[in-house]
Amino acid sequence: MPSCHLISLIASVKTSKAAWDKLSQLFANRARSSVMSLKERLTLTRRNSKPVIAYLQIVKAIADELALINASVVDDDLVIHILNGVGPEFKELAAAVCARESSISFKELHDKLVEYEVALQRLSLL
Fold it and tell me: What is the pLDDT of residue 22?
């Protein structure tokens, strides 16, 4: 946002506290809007025909953007988003991950999905 635009927003306020409050409110609204937009992107992102690695990079980038604006995604929620978007070809792996007694890290899920994709590709060549 250009500084001249910011100046015009606070030019009429009487105190520095009022100026600070007005700017805080402006940027809080933008941050909330960014959080909502990124969370929607995370929810709607699907692998479709992309390789698993490409899909996971997209999901991780969105999660990292959320973390940068203090809206981190809990690992279990990230896993759910990934499993919901990875596609029906991975339903057996998704069921196994959901049935685990303990949580799975992003790194471990990443490795398992890539291995599973390689196995699926190998089976389709037979």
Answer: 79
Report the distance separating Cα 19 and Cα 6, nearest Å.
10
Token digits for 87?
């596609």
> Which residues contact residue 126 at a Cβ distance below 8 angstroms, ignoring those fewer than 6 apart?
none
Residue 19 confidence (pLDDT): 82
CA 69 vs CA 20, 31, 33: distances in Å:
19, 7, 11
Helix, strand, coil percent values for the chain (each to nearest 5): 75, 0, 25
pTM above 0.85, yes or no: no
Owner of token pair 């506290």:
17
- Measure the N-to-C terminal CA separation of the chain; round to a whole number of Å: 57
